[in-house]
Amino acid sequence: MADREIRTEQQVKDKIKAFNKQRAGLLFAFIIFIGILIFSPAAEAEALPVCLTVFCSAIFLLCGAAFVISFRDLLLLLIVTTGIPAVLLGLGQIRFELFLILLLTNVGTVFTASITGKAVTRSFTNEIEEINRLKTEATTDALTHLLNRNGLEQAAGTAWALCKRDKKKVGVILADIDYFKSYNDTLGHPEGDNILRQVADSVKSCFRRETDIISRIGGDEFLIFLSEVNDDRILEMAQSLSSSIINLKVTTASENNPGDFLSVSIGVATSTPQPDDLLVDLYKAVDKALYRAKRAGRNCISFHDKLIQSGCLWRHHFL
Question: CA nearest 59: which of 106, 100, 95, 97?
Fold first, then answer.
């Protein structure tokens, strides 16, 4: 939550900078025009202090109207803008009545610009939050808050390109809940959704690196994309995931289930991507591995034509 708020705040600041930058050129032209209007009639030197005082207040008024300025910066501008007339007043160059009028005008500018700036900032914030919300909905599974298929393609595509460039090994784990339909049929869809959330939480607890990409790509399928991983490590993580699901102690709802509790079948595939390799080929490989795990009786891990059963007992299986 904090990271999202920080990111939103930075996006608002960037938008304000762009907003102010767009108006800077037009404001500069207005300042020159006003300067010509104010100073051109002042041929006599004694009129220059008055013109300078009015010009400073005019610039301040224009800046407050054109730009989004923080209250602190407005106060600094007020000090500068008021300081010049105060010095001229002290030197007897301008009358007190003029100084008072311009001071009140400048103070009014501060409060007006502050209120306007807050309104514009609030509008920018709401706009950015709405855009971010739509982006999140487009890439996130609403039930589990993991990435959906679209989010996976974006995140994994970037990670795949980086690993291909740096010649680093990647791995994919595809987990499918065993006989998940039986839970929906027996316990109802609300409880089935609750089971999916529990499985998602287990997946998140097993894969905590910032580079780990976790997604729910189907009704009961979860895909994890891992960068910079070797075969031993990815098998260890797959076993950890399998054990974590069983340790949820969700009683099986199907007599065909290979165990007493909820379990998953897992396919694993790895690759060191070459220039011409495609990510979709890695997905096909892990999908075939998952199919082998299901065909072998479920509740097991399939990797490189080998099967590892629950309980970490290896057996070779050339299919």
Answer: 106
